[in-house]
Amino acid sequence: MAVVLQEAHELLVLARRPDVRARLSAVGVPDEALAELEPRLVAAREAQSAWALARDPRKSEEVQEREDQGQTLRRRMVAAARWNLRDDRSAQGTLDGIVEGDSLADLIQDLEDLALLMEQRGEAFAADQTFDPAARGAEARTLAAAIRSDVAARRVLAESIDVDLRDRAYTALITRITELRAAGRYAFQDDEKLAPRFASAYVRNTNRRRNRASVDATEALASPAPG
């Protein structure tokens, strides 16, 4: 798709030249065909960008930072709870369950569970001057809500992308490109400089490499084996 978009842009620039436009019109290319190339290119570019964004597994720095903060907070809360609730078998069982999963969904739920644990057993942390269960619990709930919102936003974005829309935009663009290339090759058939510009450089280079590889393979088979 990236190659198609680039070559469509180059064709658009070429077709805007007054001499080229006049020659294309002279062989019967309607003005609408030239006028439609740019909006089709814009539509295809936007559809491709939206599709790529939805499929991109990378997260923004802000989102990744929140998740890292959540991981760090969970680790610290678990460590504090392990120590201060060391004589509470029920709490230790809850902590065992919390440390089992490591998915993003687990992180969100773990922060919620740890916040509740801090609320219910806050008095057990009274002797620990290095840890504030109420403050950490509130922070955990805030982070859990933010991470949950991030996940939901990415899911909505992914579900909103219509792959068929991208494919239709591509088809509309490539149809117009193919028509204009055919017209250009005909209109400039005697122009050695312009005629090649109405062909796909990507396809031409790919075919050249393929032919070169075929020749190399044939020559290798024909060469006598070293004796």
Query: Over all CA atoms, what is the radius of gyration?
Result: 31 Å
Q: Look at the helices and sheets and give the structural class.
A: mainly alpha
SSE run: HHHHHHHHH
Global mean pLDDT: 85
How many alpha or pi helices? 9
The best one-word shape is rod-shaped
Description of the structure:
By secondary structure, the chain is mainly α. It contains nine helices and no strands.
Describe the secondary-structure layout.
Elements: H1 2-15, H2 18-26, H3 31-55, H4 61-84, H5 89-98, H6 104-120, H7 133-160, H8 163-187, H9 201-222
Helix pairs in contact: 1-3, 2-8, 3-7, 3-8, 4-6, 4-7, 6-7
Outline of the structure:
This protein has helices at residues 2-15, 18-26, 31-55, 61-84, 89-98, 104-120, 133-160, 163-187, 201-222. With 227 residues, it is mainly α.
Features:
single chain, 227 residues, mainly alpha, 2 domains, 9 helices
